[in-house]
Specification:
Elements lengths: L4 H11 L5 H7 L30 H10 L2 E3 L29 H17 L17 E5 L5 H6 L2 H5 L6 E8 L2 E8 L2 H16 L8 E4 L5 E6 L43 H13 L3 E3 L12 H14 L5 E6 L24 H17 L5 E4 L16 H12 L5 E5 L14 H11 L14 E6 L22 E7 L15 H8 L18 H5 L10 E6 L13 H13 L5 H12 L4 H22 L29 H5 L5 E2 L16 H8 L9 H4 L2 E2 L10 H24 L7 H20 L5
Parallel strand pairs: 1-2, 2-4, 6-7, 6-13, 7-8, 8-9, 9-10, 10-11, 11-12, 12-13
Antiparallel strand pairs: 3-4, 3-5, 14-15
Helix pairs in contact: 2-21, 4-7, 10-11, 13-16, 15-16, 16-17, 17-21, 21-22
The structure holds 4-O-methyl-beta-D-glucopyranuronic acid (GCW).
């Protein structure tokens, strides 16, 4: 590589002029002072988007108070969820409380939400002799509530399935009331949150006729914050306070927090549960995929059972990440295996996993199953013992299938022996197993209760990647899409980066998938593959690698809350528009004032593209200094090729970028023909993926007319200046936002601005 190119590249990050200042200036919004949005100045952000401040529009408040006067949840306490832990309790001094039924959670949320927004208590009433009082909000299922049964037809309700809901304004005689109905208690809870969201975002609620249901069945989080801890609550953002680790869940806190370990339930677990239910997220795998076997020990299982108990009324099930070789861990003695017994077809191996899963299930009856990172980044797997991923995944899957559990087997593997191009390796390993003809004549070896969990792109959660070539290519296997919510490569807890548009880009990318005769499928966007509509998969899943920690605002950066919100909304309905989602989030989190909403939404909507521009523009991947994944270091060789910026940028005297066209590694050939052609040709590849697929000559002419080098410089500068604009624009909101949150975001934006052009000091 030509050494001169990289310093030149790096210099552009810092020395460019101010030609775009005018853009920033024209985008800046004029200031007119308005009343603050209704939170006390020391508000920490701890309620996420469930803040329920008084409705600021006086007319709307009057309308709401007229339309909503009572809460009716018949038999709310009848259907108690399972509770394993006899003496489950909240920590002393808690403000949240434990609920025992899902309908109770719905009722309590209405009491809290309506009370807050209407500025007066809304009574919980019973329906006397089947009559409904004018202004009631009636919640339930046909089974729980005679009123619901009468108000909505069975046919209409059947159409929304197990977890969907109807929200309707109904007139009966002289009474007008609202019905929130589900086929299950959980559906009714989801409908309740949807109703509250309408009011939080100041929409009319007097003529409702809403039917909604999720497109994807398992809408999950993998909570990784047991490792990188961007949401940890201490000064440097890298850990906890008072003996906590910085993770959201306390299993082994020490010192002042020793009494706050599970089974004790903390407020933040309940806030999380309510917030996740408000989005329709229905499962969380609580530990990092670089898994610690401690989570399978009896002591931990008892703690996990308490957590599961607390979350259960909100429809959130627990899962665990496990290590393939857990059976050999002496912590499970005397029930341990030797390496030679780790045969995935053997009864010892399967028996061990069945026993362990049974133990978990006896404490957590609705336990989801296991997530496995195998033969990846030092995690052990079947290949260490002479078997492939299909053998390993199916071995554990067979062990847990009788218990109704699933295995999420991650496809994030990049064994260097498979191919010189890291990006080709996963499909080369998994594709043939999916294609394999089975003894019964069907194709695909992976068991029905295995999901292959695949990151959105073929590298590793970079700010922008093309879609993973496996989407649509694994016709015979259940596939789960894994998106990163925690901002490992997108600014961590320092940068304001709204990822809704990134998720939207991924989900709405056309795979151009074809059927076995080479005919284009009719529905073939990534979202169609994931929701099963493209290839008729009955079981479907989407997973967000989440960002929850013990920070007061739960995510470290106030704006990281938006990424969790967006992920959840898109997991429920991937066709949603990320701008609309941002609007909802701003209204629910900051203010309903039009100018505030427009200003913050505008900041958010450009923030991801700005990050891409100042960090990895035009499709260049992974230019980060080793380890931290925050600061760029394009000249670095990190000890192995596929962790190294130089391997990805291939900078030399001819140009920049990784040739993955037919003249290079030909990753392009792993895509369906239409994309293969598009990506394989430097003239048709989208410019935002240019260097992903091509070694681009320095003088290559771009669509803008600029030479490649100049375009690169332009993009870097655009990104950097956008951050300055965001910092300046936030200042215009000083009088609109409560002081603590305003100041915390302001401080983060100052760091963001300093770090965008240079990467700042290593963080
Ligand atoms: O991006 C990489 C991260 C690892 C992570 C890995 C994975 C949890 O740097 O921290 O491991 O991806 O997805 O397994």
């Amino acid at each position: 590589m030509i050494r001169g190119s990289v310093p030149r590249l790096r210099r552009t990050l810092v020395v460019l002029g101010t030609a775009l200042a005018t853009v920033a200036a024209t985008l800046a919004v004029a200031t007119t002072p308005v009343a603050a949005a209704g939170s006390p100045d020391d508000y920490s952000g701890s309620d996420l988007w469930l803040r329920y401040v008084p409705v600021s529009d006086a007319k709307l408040l009057r309308d709401y108070r007229r339309t909503v006067t009572a809460i009716v949840v018949e038999n709310a306490d009848a259907d108690r969820v399972h509770r394993h832990t006899a003496d489950l309790t909240m920590a002393p001094g808690s403000t949240e409380k434990l609920v025992e039924t899902t309908l109770g959670a719905a009722r309590d949320e209405l009491v809290r939400g309506l009370g807050g927004m209407l500025g007066q208590p809304t009574p919980v009433t019973t329906a006397g002799a089947g009559t409904v009082r004018d202004g009631s909000v009636v919640v339930g299922t046909p089974a729980s509530s005679p009123l619901v049964r009468r108000a909505v037809s069975a046919r209409d309700l059947a159409a929304v399935g197990d977890e969907g809901y109807l929200v309707r304004s109904v007139s009966r005689g002289r009474a007008r009331f609202t019905v929130i109905a589900g086929n299950s208690d959980l559906g009714a809870l989801y409908g309740t949150f949807a109703f509250l969201r309408l009011m939080q975002t100041q929409k009319p609620v007097d003529h409702l006729r809403i039917a909604d249901s999720p497109k994807i069945k398992h809408r999950l989080l993998n909570n990784w914050e047991t490792e990188r801890l961007y949401a940890g609550n201490n000064a440097s953002g890298l850990g906890g306070l008072n003996g906590e680790s910085g993770a959201i869940f306390n299993f082994a806190a020490t010192g002042a927090s020793a009494g706050r370990n599970l089974p004790v339930i903390l407020d933040r677990y309940i806030v999380m549960a309510r917030a996740l239910a408000s989005l329709g997220i229905n499962g969380i795998t609580i530990n990092n995929v670089n898994a610690d076997n401690a989570y399978l020990t009896s002591a931990r299982i008892a703690q996990e059972a308490a957590l599961a108990d607390a979350l259960r009324p909100y429809g959130i099930r627990l899962g665990l990440s496990i290590r393939y070789t857990a059976p050999t861990d002496s912590r499970f003695a005397p029930d341990t295996l030797t390496n030679s017994q780790l045969d995935p077809y053997g009864t010892e191996f399967r028996g061990w996993w069945t026993r362990r899963a049974q133990q978990v299930q006896s404490a957590i009856p609705d336990f989801m199953g296991f997530t496995v990172k195998a033969n990846s980044e030092g995690q052990p797997g079947p290949q260490d013992f002479g078997y492939d991923h299909g053998d390993g995944a199916n071995g554990i899957a067979a062990a847990v299938a009788p218990l109704g559990m699933t295995v999420h087997w991650r496809t994030f593997v990049y064994n260097a022996e498979v191919d010189n191009d890291r990006l080709k390796r996963a499909y080369l390993e998994f594709g043939p197993i999916d294609d394999e003809v089975q003894p019964d004549g069907t194709r695909g070896r992976f068991a029905d209760n295995v999901f292959l969990q695949t990151k959105n792109g073929p590298l590793d959660f970079q700010a922008r990647e093309p879609i993973h070539p496996m989407f649509g290519r694994m016709e015979n296997t259940n596939q789960a899409l894994e998106l990163q919510v925690t901002q490992e490569y997108t600014g961590q807890n320092w940068m304001l980066t709204y990822l809704g548009p990134m998720y939207e880009e991924v989900l709405k990318t056309d795979t151009y998938a074809t059927d076995e005769n080479g005919k284009l499928l009719r529905e073939r966007l990534v979202g169609n593959i994931v929701d099963g509509s493209a290839q008729h998969h009955p079981d479907t899943a989407i997973v967000g690698v989440a960002n929850l920690g013990n920070a007061d605002n739960l995510t470290g950066h106030h704006f990281s809350q938006a990424n969790l919100f967006a992920f959840g909304r898109q997991a429920w309905n991937w066709t949603l528009d990320s701008t609309d989602i941002a609007t909802d989030w701003v209204r629910m989190t900051w203010s309903n004032d039009r100018r505030v909403v427009d200003t913050i939404r505008t900041m958010m909507m450009g923030s991801w593209e700005a990050l891409v521009s100042y960090q990895t523009p035009l499709g260049i991947g992974h230019q980060f200094a080793e380890g931290a994944h925050y600061r760029p270091d394009p000249a670095d060789w990190a000890g192995r090729d596929d962790w190294s910026p130089v391997y990805y940028n291939k900078a030399d005297s001819a140009g920049l970028g990784f040739d993955r066209s037919p003249t290079g590694s030909n990753l392009a050939a792993q895509y369906f023909p239409r994309l293969q052609r598009r990506y394989g040709d430097i003239d048709s590849v989208p410019e935002n993926l240019l260097m992903w697929f091509h070694h681009v000559p320095w003088g290559h002419r771009m669509d803008s007319g600029r030479p490649f080098w100049d375009e690169l410089v332009y993009r870097y500068q655009m990104g950097v200046q956008y951050v300055t604009w965001m910092r300046e624009t936030w200042e215009t909101l000083r009088t609109d936002i409560d002081a603590r949150r305003f100041g915390e975001v302001r401080a983060k934006l100052a760091v963001h601005e300093a770090d965008a052009p240079t990467g700042g000091t290593p963080r």
